[in-house]
Write a structure and sequence with these properties.
By secondary structure, the chain is an alpha+beta fold. About 25% of the residues lie in helices and about 25% in strands. The chain has helices at about 5-25, 65-80, 100-105, 130-135, 155-165, 170-180, 230-240, 250-255, 325-335, 350-355; strands spanning about 30-35, 40-45, 60, 200, 210, 225-230, 260, 270, 275-280, 285-295, 295-305, 310-315, 360, 365-370, 375-380, 390-395, 400, 410-415, 420-425, 430. The model has no long low-confidence stretch (mean pLDDT about 95).
Length: about 450
């Protein structure tokens, strides 16, 4: 581990992990924390056979698999091979969701059943693609409106088929080529590779164990097939916190982390992005996914704003509580709050860009335009709450909104014949250097101030 925590912090983290393992009778559990791209803590409780689990011990990660599926779909979108607004049937025809848009399947808003037709898919041998697709008929649709959140494993089985159809390769090959190999995640596999923990169920009323089955889910593999280690999952957490390498553009990851649907009411604390689970806890925005399969439980959460993440893996069908991940983040924040990196001047900002900074007025409302360290622009209210958006360059004097009210909108820098800036045009809104500048083309014209 590159970072070192204080002994008191490590003891507090271990105590919380020990309470989870002993209080819920978990055969084995391992957890890890990452901060600023470094692993800062890994510890475990319980046994796997005659050895303690370590950061190279594989566990099933269940539905965390869905996060990989989502990244593969977004890569297809970024390459122009599909649009998230495409109908699913445009690429994989013949199911009951032919008219649903791809993003709806990613956000669990397609109206599909939570589970596929047939036997309990997590405990039985999986179906081939043609049989699985044939089973996604009208009986698989639920009566809720499509925009209502309804978690669907079936949807991610279908998204796996989408990836295979567009790429012309099987899902696991695409996964290894496009994500696992580039990120160095060599211990994330579709079947267990030693050392690995066995899947176990603990009797509710006695301290005895029962082995759980492991079957190849075949067409449903994208919903929860993968096995992984704490080391690999900590790398995936760094990805979700923003360290995407060449696998995904940071703007696309940011898009995935935005709420697309919520599942607990208007003052939501739990929701879904594009293939990611979102949570708000004590003012903190968390992103990740939980996972469960017979004999295994897992949960991972990243807090991008703090460049921090947590993962736990356990080999038990029930017991380990998802609150453990949040509690470990809370302990870390309480005992050793993150120290932000030192500010250093970036330099290299052109005179043309510096010319755009400072106060602009949308009518009588002052707005502040700043250059961010990454070369993007930030437009926000001068004082108090208001609209805020970042903009990335999109050609000479053209910028595209990345987030907030102006996401996707074009900001144009309008210049006079001599090259001086006269005003900004943000999707018809005119921003001027003084309130309602009469020399700028403000719609409706302007009159003298009285």
């Amino acid at each position: 581990m590159a970072g070192e925590l204080l002994p008191a912090t490590r003891r507090a983290l271990l105590r919380r992990l020990a309470l989870e393992q002993s209080g819920n009778r978990v055969p084995s559990i391992i957890a890890g924390l990452v901060r600023d791209g470094e692993t800062i803590w890994v510890d475990s409780r319980g046994w796997v056979g005659d050895r303690r689990p370590d950061s190279d011990t594989q566990y099933r990660i269940g539905s965390i698999t869905k996060t990989f599926v989502a990244v593969l779909v977004l890569r297809l979108r970024d390459e122009g091979l599909l649009s998230l607004s495409d109908r699913f049937g445009d690429h994989v025809p013949g199911t009951a969701v032919d008219d649903r848009q791809i993003w709806q399947l990613l956000a669990h808003s397609s109206g599909l059943s939570s589970e596929p037709a047939g036997q309990w898919w997590e405990r039985t041998k999986g179906e081939a693609a043609e049989d699985f697709l044939a089973g996604v008929d009208s009986d698989q649709l639920r009566p809720e409106p499509q925009h209502v959140f309804h978690y669907s494993n079936t949807a991610f089985g279908l998204l796996g088929q989408l990836i295979e159809r567009v790429r012309g390769k099987d899902f696991t090959t695409v996964l290894h080529e496009e994500i696992l190999e580039p990120l160095g995640m060599r211990r994330t596999t579709e079947s267990p590779v030693p050392p690995y923990a066995p899947g176990l169920a603990v009797h509710p009323w006695a301290d005895v164990l029962q082995p759980e089955p492991f079957e190849d889910a075949v067409a449903m593999a994208p919903a929860g097939q993968l096995w992984s280690t704490v080391d690999d999952m900590l790398r995936w957490l760094r990805f979700l916190a923003g360290e995407t390498g060449e696998v995904l553009h940071p703007d696309t990851l940011d898009e995935m982390r935005k709420p697309a649907s919520v599942d607990d009411g208007p003052q939501w604390t739990r929701g879904a992005g594009l293939g990611l689970q979102l949570a708000r806890h004590n003012g903190r925005a968390l992103v990740g996914h939980s996972g469960s399969m017979p004999g295994f439980l897992a949960n991972m959460l990243a807090e991008p704003a703090e460049s921090t993440g947590v993962i736990f893996l356990a080999n038990t069908t029930a017991g380990a509580n998802g609150a453990l991940a949040v509690d470990l983040l809370e302990i870390l924040a309480e005992h050793e709050p993150r120290i932000p990196p030192e500010w250093v001047p970036e330099g290299g900002v052109s005179e043309e860009l510096l010319e755009l900074t400072g106060l602009w007025y949308w009518g009588p409302v002052p707005q502040l335009l700043r250059v961010l360290p990454d070369g993007m622009l930030d437009l926000s209210a001068w004082q108090g709450p208001g609209r805020q958006s970042r903009f990335r360059p999109d050609g000479p004097d053209d910028w595209i909104g990345l987030d907030g009210y102006h996401r996707g909108e074009r900001l144009r820098v309008v210049r006079a014949v001599d090259g001086s800036v006269t005003h900004l045009d943000l999707n018809t809104f005119v921003f001027t250097r003084r309130p309602y500048d009469p020399s700028a083309p403000v719609p409706g014209g302007t009159l003298p101030w009285e």
